[in-house]
């Protein structure tokens, strides 16, 4: 039986609080996420009169959630447009192949003509 391996921890600071985050992911990525959240919280706190860190965290979370949902919507729109254009390209390719096939058939038929 194998001994369980400990999940590495990353120490980060968010809004003057230190957190030890356990993650088997990329340490640098975790640090970047923490810096992003810290930056958002500082941005929010500079624009409001509240000093309550919980309220600042909730407002930052709402701003981040809003950004996420807007980006998801944009991504869905782009996917939809890509699917439509892909369908158009497939139709054009089908038409082109049909024209090519009919031209080859005509060329093949004209080669069988003989004069006596």
What does this structure look like?
- It is a single chain.
- The protein has one domain.
- By secondary structure, it is mainly alpha-helical.
- Strand 1 and strand 2 (17-22) form a beta hairpin.
- 5% of the residues are buried.
- The chain has a two-stranded antiparallel ribbon.
- The chain has helices spanning 27-46, 53-110, and strands at residues 9-14, 17-22.
- The model has no long low-confidence stretch (mean pLDDT 88).
- Helices cover 67% and strands 10% of the residues.
- The radius of gyration is 30 Å and the shape is elongated.
Index terms:
single chain; 116 residues; mainly alpha; elongated
Strand content: 5-15%
Give the strand line-up of the largest sheet: 1-2
Structural class: mainly alpha
- Helix count from the secondary structure assignment: 2
Question: Averaged pLDDT, please?
Answer: 88
Topology:
Layout: E1 9-14, E2 17-22, H1 27-46, H2 53-110
Antiparallel strand pairs: 1-2
Helix pairs in contact: 1-2
Short recap of the structure:
The protein is mostly helical and 116 residues long.
